[in-house]
């Protein structure tokens, strides 16, 4: 039986860990939140008192933390890397700066540790249904080693390239997501204000050249799709505060790679505005609210 250590049991980490357990794996976990630890023990996760304890006597260590600061704090400040057995494969699933990710994996390598970056797409629903897409960076051998574990939590596993490449793919994807969500909201607003029914307009555009994932699967206009966050006051889903985090990381990536990103910049300004309005805990399709 594979023994997994899991650090960061939040909205994504908890259902991912549960999927490993339902596939017969033994999971020990740690989170700084007492509430999450309580939920973890109710979900058959062996609760640990700190990250170090969660990293002992395991085959694989998975981290699913909110940001780069938390990832650095776990691996560096708490000297985790220096204390992990070299037989353990480390799978870092948080969305963080590709540079931080690469630096961390180089440090791991210098300590004879195997580490890959494997950020995800698919949201909480994808995590619950084991339907995540993993974008993986690292050596071919380590990616192959990780596949049997990742396949218990996701449906698509892509090897993007060397360490940090998974993070680059994730940031490109989320910048594009913000752009087509904002564009979809803008077009729907113009159509409705010009007298069209949002459902009729959505149907037309989805069967025409304007069709895209935001319009077809995650429609931002309230009432068009009963199950989308837009029809539930934009509650749940992928929060604006996570989208702005990813857009700021994408901006850094654009600067580092000397890439012009005028569309990404426009989308980021809209998400900045949502945050300024105090709407950080609404789903990212609430960008529709800015097109009044
Ligand atoms: P979350 O805030 O719900 O969970 C993060 C967990 O990490 C929290 O429970 C927090 O208490 C814990 N934590 C923070 N610092 C810690 C530390 N030092 N040691 C141990 N635990 C610590 O966030 P989430 O929604 O689960 O997202 C996790 C990551 O996945 C983020 O990087 C996010 O960008 C990415 N992501 C999220 C979604 C989504 O839809 N929520 C989708 C794709 C990717």
Characterize the structure shown.
It contains twelve helices and nine strands. Helix 8 crosses helix 11 (about 240-255), helix 8 crosses helix 12 and helix 11 (about 240-255) runs antiparallel to helix 12 (about 260-275). The mean pLDDT is about 95. The strands form two sheets. The protein has a six-stranded parallel β-sheet, sandwiched between helices. The protein is α/β, with parallel strands linked by helices and about 290 residues long. The chain has two domains: about 5-160, NAD(P)-binding Rossmann-like Domain (Rossmann fold); about 170-290, N-(1-d-carboxylethyl)-l-norvaline Dehydrogenase, domain 2 (Orthogonal Bundle). Nicotinamide-adenine-dinucleotide binds near residues 10, 33, 51 and 73.
Brief sketch in words of this structure:
By secondary structure, the protein is α/β, with parallel strands linked by helices. The protein is built from twelve helices and nine strands. The protein folds into two domains: 3-162, Rossmann fold, CATH 3.40.50; 168-291, N-(1-d-carboxylethyl)-l-norvaline Dehydrogenase, domain 2, CATH 1.10.1040.10.
């Amino acid at each position: 039986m594979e023994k997994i250590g899991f650090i960061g049991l939040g909205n994504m980490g908890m259902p991912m860990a549960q999927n490993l357990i339902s596939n017969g794996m033994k999971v020990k976990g740690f989170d700084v939140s007492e509430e999450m630890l309580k939920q973890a023990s109710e979900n058959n996760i062996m609760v640990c008192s700190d990250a170090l304890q969660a990293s002992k006597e395991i085959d694989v260590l998975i981290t699913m933390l909110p940001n780069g600061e938390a990832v650095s704090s776990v691996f560096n400040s708490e000297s985790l890397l220096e204390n992990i057995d070299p037989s353990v494969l480390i799978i870092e699933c948080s969305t963080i700066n590709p540079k931080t990710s690469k630096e961390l994996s180089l440090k791991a390598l210098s300590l004879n540790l195997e580490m890959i970056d494997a950020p995800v797409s698919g949201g909480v629903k994808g995590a619950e249904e084991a339907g995540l897409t993993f974008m993986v960076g690292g050596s071919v051998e380590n990616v192959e080693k990780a596949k049997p574990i990742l396949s218990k939590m996701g449906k698509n596993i892509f090897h993007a390239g060397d360490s940090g490449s998974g993070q680059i793919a994730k940031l490109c994807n989320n910048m594009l997501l913000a752009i087509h969500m904002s564009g979809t909201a803008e077009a729907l607003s113009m159509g409705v204000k010009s007298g069209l029914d949002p459902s009729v307009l959505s149907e037309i555009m989805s069967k025409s050249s304007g069709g895209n994932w935001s319009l077809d699967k995650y429609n931002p206009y309230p009432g068009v799709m009963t199950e989308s966050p837009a029809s539930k006051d934009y509650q749940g889903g992928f929060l604006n505060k996570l989208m702005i985090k990813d857009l700021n990381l994408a901006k850094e990536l654009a600067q580092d790679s000397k890439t012009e990103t005028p569309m990404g910049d426009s989308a980021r300004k809209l998400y900045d505005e949502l945050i300024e309005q105090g709407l950080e805990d609404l789903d990212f399709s609430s960008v529709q609210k800015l097109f009044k």
